[in-house]
Design goal:
The chain is of the alpha+beta class and 174 residues long. The protein has helices at 2-25, 32-43, 53-58, 84-98; strands at 60-71, 77-79, 101-112, 115-125, 135-145, 150-159. Strand 1 (60-71) and strand 2 (77-79) form a beta hairpin.
Length: 174
């Protein structure tokens, strides 16, 4: 009986902590702007700086996918489908060991009803102090607004290459 009581109390405390944490994050997904800003901010950090992976996962719908695309070793165009947890497992350690800042430099938004498609052009840096990016590309981000918050449904991205430069319409207009 004591074990059951301890388990129930532990579960209740755990549930309250999760709920409190979620409530702390609710302002991060209230608007499209706050959601996208949080996305870029949560993966960015200096070398050895831990990331808030709970916040990262909070941004995504339970069925969301992260989909990097590009050419494989054989030169074929491919896409790899990952859950947010898969992304953390495959990239989390690298981000911390190397330092990584992804900054949005241009955004194109299309909305119909409660769905939004964002083409977000990014530049990637190893440190916030860097002035020249080591990589650029476009994130194609699909989002859902359920009336309470924004959910990231998918992020499908491709890095810029010599044979596939970013089109002018997706770059800042000076």
């Amino acid at each position: 009986m004591k074990k059951v009581t301890v388990l129930l109390i532990s579960f209740a405390v755990y549930s309250m902590n999760i709920s409190a944490q979620s409530n702390n994050y609710s302002n991060k997904v209230k608007t499209l702007e706050s959601t996208l800003s949080t996305l870029y901010g949560v993966i960015s950090g200096e070398k050895s700086q831990e990331r808030d992976w709970e916040l990262f996962k909070y941004l995504f719908h339970s069925e969301a996918k992260l989909i990097p695309s590009g050419k494989n070793a054989e030169g074929l165009h491919t896409a790899r489908f990952m859950t947010p947890d898969d992304y953390i497992k495959s990239s989390g350690k690298w981000l911390i060991e190397n330092g990584f800042f992804e900054k949005e430099i241009h955004r194109s938004v299309n909305t119909f009803g409660n769905i939004t498609q964002v083409f977000s052009t990014y530049e990637s840096f190893r440190s916030e102090a860097d002035t020249k990016p080591f990589m650029r590309g476009i994130n194609s981000i699909q989002l859902l607004n359920d009336g309470e918050r924004w959910w990231i449904i998918n992020i499908y991205w491709m890095q810029e290459s010599d044979e596939n430069p970013i089109p002018k319409e997706y770059l800042p207009q000076n």
